[in-house]
UniProtKB/TrEMBL annotation:
Residue spans crossing the bilayer: none
SUPFAM superfamilies listed in its UniProt record: Homeodomain-like
Annotated ranges, domain HTH araC/xylS-type: 99-197
Alphabetized InterPro entries for the sequence: AraC-type_N, Homeodomain-like_sf, HTH_AraC, Tscrpt_reg_AraC-type_HTH
PROSITE patterns in alphabetical order: HTH_ARAC_FAMILY_2
This protein's record includes keyword Transcription: yes
A UniProt-annotated Pfam family: HTH_18
Taxonomy of the source species: Bacteria, Pseudomonadati, Pseudomonadota, Betaproteobacteria, Burkholderiales
Gene3D superfamilies with a match to the protein in the record: Homeodomain-like
Protein name: AraC family transcriptional regulator
One annotated GO molecular function: DNA-binding transcription factor activity
Length: 211
């Protein structure tokens, strides 16, 4: 899904560039962070033949002269708004890689497909680039994954209706045993012990009175 999303988004942006330039825009090359597919027939028909795979990031590479091309239907007001939006997006890319990675981790965990490569692919960059960005914040995909798992584990276990194997699946573990071992290493208790302690603490606290 991530691969199709990135390629479809690239095709949409490329069509937009062509429309703005009266169909004269031709990218220097198009880069994708993911691997080359078996067939490039559709890629060549939609994106052209200057395509490279397994790159540092996914991008449409433009020539300098293309960036200076006049746009016949240019709207100065819209231009300012788009420029402001792009500045905000660039700021997010520079300043919040850990936050964005965290959002992707939460999305991928239930499918059991969360990994450094998957997170990097969803963000449209190579794993080395992602690791470098996260390292500036003292983070890694592994540490983010453990933090997210810990938060969700507490949330799920607090809901006594969920069975252990269901919680394990939601957190991306292949079995309840794998989840239990990870949980004990993280919390010093088994999931059952933690849940029992939570229920006891909640019962001892009693109902909240309103005055």
């Amino acid at each position: 899904v991530w691969r199709q999303t990135i390629e479809q988004s690239t095709g949409i942006v490329l069509r937009m560039f062509r429309a703005l330039s009266d169909n004269t825009f031709r990218p220097a090359r198009i880069c994708f962070a993911h691997e080359r597919p078996a067939s490039l027939e559709v890629h060549h028909r939609v994106l052209g033949t200057a395509i490279e795979f397994s790159q540092e990031c996914s991008a449409i590479v433009c020539r300098g002269r293309d960036l200076d091309m006049p746009i016949p239907a240019a709207d100065p007001t819209l231009h300012r708004e788009v420029e402001r939006w792009l500045d905000m997006q660039l700021a997010d890319l520079r300043d919040e890689p850990a936050l964005r990675a965290r959002q992707i981790v939460r999305m991928l965990l239930p499918g059991g497909i969360c990994s450094v490569d998957r997170v990097a692919q969803h963000l449209g960059m190579h794993r080395r680039t992602l690791n470098r960005h996260l390292a500036t914040e003292g983070e890694s995909v592994t540490t983010i994954m453990n933090v997210v798992r810990a938060e969700l584990a507490e949330e799920y276990l607090a809901n006594s209706k969920r069975r252990l194997y269901e919680v394990a699946e939601l957190l991306g573990f292949s079995s309840a045993g794998d989840f239990s071992r990870w949980f004990r290493g993280r919390f010093g208790k088994t999931p059952s012990e933690w849940a029992a302690h939570y229920r006891q603490s909640k019962a001892a606290a009693g109902p909240i009175s309103h005055t």
